[in-house]
Amino acid sequence: MALIECKNASFGYGTLTVLRNVNLTVSAGDYICLAGPNGAGKSTLLRGLLKLKEPRSGSVEFGDGLTPSRIGYLPQNTEIRENFPALVSEVVLSGGLGREGSGWFYSKSDKSLTANCLEKLGISGLAKKRYGELSGGQRRRVLIARALRAAAMMLVMDEPTAGLDAQSCAEFDELVTVLNRGGMTVITVSHDVNCRAHRELRIENGEVKIVHTH
């Protein structure tokens, strides 16, 4: 079975149906980019695929050992306040709290994995700085590292490069490509079509269409 199987699913809010009859399979090792204009339903679909939003009709099922605790998720709007007093290393460490086998205390392995995530995002030098002292672009990198720390099987990101400059975006695209080639399943939302993705899906007028596959 696929990691995620979405069958004839519709999603909406109140009396409004945002997405209709979505059929989508996410398999291990996929790299999927969701694109479309503002308000098209990209974030809604993402939440639906993660079972954070129930479908009005149809179904969304997890398989092949996928559980919520094995997914690293970066929402479009983070719940971490800018004046959050924790250190950058602590923010990224917290990404592993939901993982199987994690307890109340961080092990040497936890700290090593966190250091690795910081290094991959090029922010090792920020580890001892307070999150609230960082620039917008730096905070975004920290939150991406936190999602990466949580990801055991799948990394899901909503507008991950928002607030990053062109060079940082290019570096991030390269990082995600390397992670995917290493076996990480990736789903990302973007206004721009990401040509490195295996499948590029565009959401318009309540429908999800494949615009590119390679």
What does the model show?
The chain is an alpha/beta fold and 214 residues long. It has two domains: 95 residues, Rossmann fold (3-Layer(aba) Sandwich), CATH 3.40.50.300; 86 residues, Rossmann fold (3-Layer(aba) Sandwich). The protein is built from five helices and nine strands; from the N terminus they run βββαββαααβαβββ. A six-stranded mixed β-sheet has the order 5-6-7-3-8-9, sandwiched between helices. Strands 2-1-4 form a three-stranded antiparallel β-sheet, covered by helices on one side. β6, α5 and β7 form a beta-alpha-beta unit. α3 crosses α4. The radius of gyration is 17 Å and the shape is globular. It starts with a strand and ends with a strand.
List the SSEs and their pairings.
Layout: E1 4-13, E2 16-26, E3 31-35, H1 42-49, E4 57-62, E5 71-74, H2 88-93, H3 108-120, H4 136-150, E6 154-158, H5 166-181, E7 185-189, E8 199-204, E9 207-213
Parallel strand pairs: 3-7, 3-8, 5-6, 6-7
Antiparallel strand pairs: 1-2, 1-4, 8-9
